[in-house]
Amino acid sequence: MSRELLSNYRLSPSRYDEMFEAPQTPRAHWRKMFEQLAATPEELMKSRIQAVQRQVRENGVTYNVYADPEGADRPWELDVLPLILPAEEWSQIAGAVAQRARLLDLILADIYGEQRLLKEGLLPPTLVYGHASYLRPCRNAKLAGDVRLHLYAADLARAPDGRWWVMTDRTQAPSGAGYALENRLVISRLYPDLFHELKVEHLAGFFATLRESLAEWAPRGDGAPLTVLLTPGPFNETYFEHAYLARYLGFPLVEGGDLTVREGKVWLKTLSGLRRVHAILRRLDGDYCDPLELRANSTLGVPGLVDATRRGNVLVANALGSSILESGMLLGFLPRLCERLLSEPLKMPSVATWWCGEPAAREEVLAQLDRLVIKPAFPQLGFEPLFGQDLQGAQREALVARMRARPRDYVAQELVQLSQAPVLDRARRLATRATGLRVYACASPNGYVVMPGGLTRVATGPDARVVSMQRGGASKDTWVLSLGPVSQFTLLHRPSTPQDLVRTGINLSSRVVEHLFWFGRHAERCDGLARLLRVALSRIIDETARERESDWPGIAGLLARTGISNGAGDAALTLVLRAAVTDDSKPGLAANLRLLVRSASHLRELMSTDNWRTLNQTMRGVARRKGQPLGLADALSELDGVIASLMTLAGFALDGMTRDHAWRFLSLGRRIERLQWICTALTQALTAPREADLGWLLELTDSTLTYRARYMGAPDWLPVLDLLVRDETNPRSVAFQLLGLRDYVGRVAAAVDYAGEERMEEAVLALQALDPATDLQYGSARLARLLDDWYGAAYRLSEQLGLRFFVHAGEINRQTVAT
Predict the structure, then answer these.
(1) What is the pTM of this model?
(2) More confident residue, 337 or 497
(3) Which of 124, 244, 269, 313 could pair covalently with 510 via S-S, beta carbons 3.0-4.6 A apart?
(4) According to the model, what pLDDT value does residue 216 have?
(5) In angstroms, rounded to a whole number, what is the distance separating the alpha carbons of residues 149 and 650?
(6) Confidence tier at 88 by pLDDT (50, 70, 90)
(7) Domains of the chain by residue range
């Protein structure tokens, strides 16, 4: 098997090979993995690849490549083979990364403090004052623990001789740690025996240190310290990671609109009012964090955050303005700065870098342009790296002219031949890809702690010169081997105290409450539309136009009310109905499923893996059908699957959620939407002829079996209306929705200041006053009026909930809503 396995594997004399030290001779720390691969049957190898792809897809692990047609739905690319590093080598890497983090933190403190390095000429003023990420309002801010760089990442590459170099420093809001954790959970399950036999270091301790350090340095007062994770929102390229880390660390995931600054402190807008925020782990670029003092056009930040930071009333990690250290022009100054600030040599060199703002460096760069990569000195310049070896003729002359005219705008770096690591290709053979490693360090009261692993990134093809996830690259798990026992610590289980016990959900953020509510509404709306389309398509398939005369008017009216159809003939109608099933650009099911997924994307940190997997499978199943010829029978089959999935989602809410306020607001959304849908359907049915067949109405409301169990005859107006209006035991009746809404609103009102239950009490009393003999009959004017009233009551309740809870209301707004 080893010969077949290595048939596509090529050792390169110009690259370091991570797996082999010579042809057919694996390195010592790779030997057991190679032996297992060689002994693995091809079918088992295939099943492993499929298992990884399936788990990534079903778990909804995504990375938004902005130029990719799949956009935010692009699955995360994960190779089934880890990168393996021995303990001795890792010890050197960890020591160098910790030293570098300590050095950069001191440089950052000086840049935003006394600026001695500028005064002594150890840093050029251009590096600071020419950088768009130098945030002047953040100078001399009070920082707890005197730490600015709480989380640091270094992008490493291995030279052909095996030494490690630092390619870039990540100091703004380093991404990828959450993906590294997800990679570990997936890959360790593929090789459970080997994972334990090799004594692979666990990652949980690193994340525990991060969480505990933020709590340790957070300012005190106003209750127990609260740390939140600030995200730009679901459209960010790494939003999956934001939600994943928030759930893993136990931090509320918030957007800028969830926070407010009052009297120099930061507060979270919650269901019960404002709650003090003591620390913010930000994934939002620094200049977007405060529209008052930084970027005025930012809609993502928190007005007043800089002032709260200056006062020392909130810990922001990393400190605002820390991205100034990501400039490539800093790399050449680090060896001297390390001697000056730490009194020791820099343990790991940066890749050879020249800043063209220095005349001697500029001339050296121009003399050897063919073997260098030209990059912008500042991020605001925004041009892509240029490979000198690719430039010819006029293009080369133009670049040289620009570099001579504005030399301070350019840095040059040596073109590094990245090391190669094994990957499994589509033929299930080993192949080589260029590889880079991102290593993470977090600050603690005892110094910087380095994650024993990291995010290994893999190039797109064998000839790729750049490793980049935005260019479609893949990733690997990183296994760091241990010489001694491996810690079994896990962040998923930790000792708790009685003070940690929580039962209510009144500290939910206003944004989360809003999306829970609309998730419930969209889920119910999708269910109603799917059932309506199924009823309509089944009639078209099974009945002639004459046979449909008895029940079609009510169905056609609902299709018109929902915007799906305007009464076209059979041929055009079938096209419209099929489009409504799969085309999200047309009114119907697919468009509303897209809204459901959008609401769910804001709740990733609250949704279970099973919940998200069901939703993800449903959406992908419908999306696959878009633009394809879809027969009526296929459309019906698709609708059956969607309805079953939506019932599963409802089951998760019914049987998998605690009955706290999160569940109540989701259920409020469901009940309001279902009440309006039932009222609309009944109103439409009452406009049909008296002799109309009511079987479609029972199908639409999933009440056919109940009716048949109670009544042996054909559907008749009185028992049908009783079942769908007054029956408190029928989950699809008006009564069931009204009673549930009254209960949920009452429980919310008992916990917070809200007086909305009186209106629901009025609706229930009107229901209970119905006389079956006169009001549950075809043509009843009172029933028609009450259906309209109940629809309006549901609409007004939705509006009131939005005004009161979804956007934090001050006293004036509360008084306005209450009147």
Answers:
(1) 0.81
(2) 337
(3) 269
(4) 93
(5) 44
(6) very high
(7) 1-351+416-488, 352-414, 511-657, 659-819
